[in-house]
Amino acid sequence: MRLGGDEPDASTPIALPGRGDPLTLATLAGERIPARVMERGVNTLLLAITVPTAPLGDGQLEGLVVEFTAPHGRVRLQGAVTREGAEVLRLDSPRSVEVLQEREYVRINAARPVLVYVGADLMEVQSFTVDVSGGGFLLAGPDSLTIGDELRFQLTLTPQSLPVSGVAKIVRIDRQGRRAAAFEEISDLDRRRLIHFIFECQRAERRRGLQQEEHDGR
After folding, report:
1. Do residues 111 and 94 share a domain?
2. End-of-domain residue from the set 100, 133, 153
């Protein structure tokens, strides 16, 4: 089977897996399906599912993420996904939605409102983050939290979006009394939303820096 596709924009190079490389197909529902690259075109990947499974439905194809490991970290791609057969998918116009560092998530300073539910009675406490990453956040409080405590949380990224929710564990308390919480339970979709928010904040910060340099250079 010959694969084609438009030439990708040279100004935004995309890391793609090679022929035969293993990868994972991640659905919005949290399913993770092993697969392998059958063929690679200029801007197209032909993917073969490598475990027995029912053909993926339209709902599973929508928002499907192709995840693989590159030399610089774990890469996730999205694009136009179509079925070529019961166990074969075609990914056209792939685009990188995130690159996750294997050892550590990118962390940014961000004061975002977060509701935490603590104690056996899940008492609701309003707090805010000092910084956030794809693996957790630093909380301003409450002071009642101790290392090892688990809490449910609802983190608001923007006023227009649904909160990111899950379960986190307190792993550290710094000298200022702030609580570092690591995620114990969080959906793949919410983690992707959080990482997207972090990358957008980084882009905005870079734009502000360039604008300041242009202003100072006048």
Report:
1. no
2. 100
Kindly tell me if the per-residue pLDDT of 141 is higher than 80: yes
Angle, CA 29 vertex, CA 112 and CA 102 arms, to 5°: 60
Number of domains in the chain: 2
- Flag whether pLDDT at 5 surpasses 70: no
Q: What is the mean pLDDT of the chain?
A: 83
- Report residue 11's pLDDT band, with 50, 70 and 90 as the boundaries: very low
pTM reported for the whole predicted model? 0.50
Instruction: Judge contact between 86 and 102, C-beta under 8 A.
Output: no
Last residue of a domain, one of 100, 119, 134: 100
